[in-house]
Amino acid sequence: MDTNNIMISLGLSVSDHNMFIVHRETTLAVSTLAIDLVDEACANVRVQLDSQKTEEIDNLERKRMQLEVELHALEKETDTASKVRLVEVKKELNDLRVITKEHADSR
C-alpha cells in the first residue's frame, strides 16, 4: 500500500500529510538541537573543571615551594620562635603533600 492509499484509508488529506511531515521534521530538528546544546554545555563544564583543577594544583605547588624555602631558612635559625614555626611549616608541608596527591589521583 503506498502513502496516498494509507492517507485515504485514514481520511487524511494531502495538507494533513504535509503538516504531519513538517511536524515530524521540526520535532527531529529541535531534538537534535537540544542534544547539541546539552553536549556543548557538558563540554564547557568539563573544560572549566579541568582548568580549575589545574589552577588549584598550580596554587598548591606554589604554596609548597614557598613553604620549602621557609623551611630551609628556619632550619638555620636557633631561636625558639623559629623552632616553633619550623614544626608548623613541616606539618603544613606534610598536609600539602597529601592534598596535592589527592588532587593528582582524582585526575
From TrEMBL:
<keyword id="KW-0547">Nucleotide-binding</keyword>
<feature type="domain" description="ClpA/ClpB AAA lid">
    <location>
        <begin position="34"/>
        <end position="87"/>
    </location>
</feature>
<dbReference type="Pfam" id="PF17871">
    <property type="entry name" value="AAA_lid_9"/>
</dbReference>
<dbReference type="InterPro" id="IPR041546">
    <property type="entry name" value="ClpA/ClpB_AAA_lid"/>
</dbReference>
<keyword id="KW-0175">Coiled coil</keyword>
<dbReference type="GO" id="GO:0005524">
    <property type="term" value="F:ATP binding"/>
</dbReference>
<protein>
    <recommendedName>
        <fullName>ClpA/ClpB AAA lid domain-containing protein</fullName>
    </recommendedName>
</protein>
<feature type="coiled-coil region">
    <location>
        <begin position="50"/>
        <end position="77"/>
    </location>
</feature>
<dbReference type="InterPro" id="IPR027417">
    <property type="entry name" value="P-loop_NTPase"/>
</dbReference>
<keyword id="KW-0067">ATP-binding</keyword>
